[in-house]
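User: Hello, can you help with two protein structures?

Assistant: Certainly.
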Amino acid sequence: MDLVDLPVGATARIASVDVGADADVTFRLGELGLRPGATVRVLNRAAFGGRVLALGTPGASASRGAMTGMRLGVDGPTVRAIRVHLPAEA
């Protein structure tokens, strides 16, 4: 499943990031925390297919969807290049 397919409020684990042959972009996304194994939660949909994500681990109030970490806006093409696993699939 692609990250773009996750509904707002859903949490998943990143399986892979495939932005093509541009190693610099892949490296930068990894520096930001968007790498295999990271946990993301979709907070909001943005224009042109982008998403606002919470990146990190579920916090103490995880039942309300809180995450410890950071929030990150990601553009549509990048969101479509990130494959994720839902908790039941992981």
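That covers the first. Now for the second protein you mentioned:
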Amino acid sequence: MEFSKTESSADGATFVSSHGRHDDDRFFMDNAFVVILIENVFFRLPVNKLQKVSEFFEKEIACPLTSESPGFCRENPMDLTKDASAAEFRILLNLIFANDVDNRNPEYSCGDKEWLVVLKLASTWNIPSYRDMAIKYLRPSLIDGRQLVELGRKYSVTNFVRDGYKELIRRVTTIEATDVNLLGYETIIKLFQLREADLRRRHAHNYVGPEMDIERAFAEELGGLTLRETILSSKR
């Protein structure tokens, strides 16, 4: 029986026979695997699964893999040690492959520590679905303004930064000297100014909160974060 190639994808070629037989879109699985080295640990993983969730892996894993391609074997692995530890990578893989292994909901298998790792790696390797999941589950437990700003800046989560500034403006205790090293002098000065303005207006009958002041004072920073976040959150 002869098959004709009709299209190519990250999962390999799709074929249609003269009798109308064709590859199933979901369950005709590629058997190509990539070997990834992190620290001193080898991981052997299906190429199609990684490329499906991550633009980074789609670009970095050669298709088809040859003996010259990083990731072909243990002697020539794809080395990602600079991006993650082996323990961090396992956390991400537990999410990516959770439903494949035991049909469990991966969202209930992580605590805050694991979600922080997922946010880090999903931002580094452009995995929008897991990045969005991490942001969703982390936000309720993040109540410290400094931590919100720090994480928001580091991983381009605009609303973390907005909420962090709001918390710092509204908190009962004053902004501390130690915050300068984390947030920077320019930010601290703006926050002091917004805090004083907010305190003066807080008892007015038409008081609406510091949100608009935050948008004006930090327009450049928030605009830059939003742009980067749009790129990182692009759905595959």
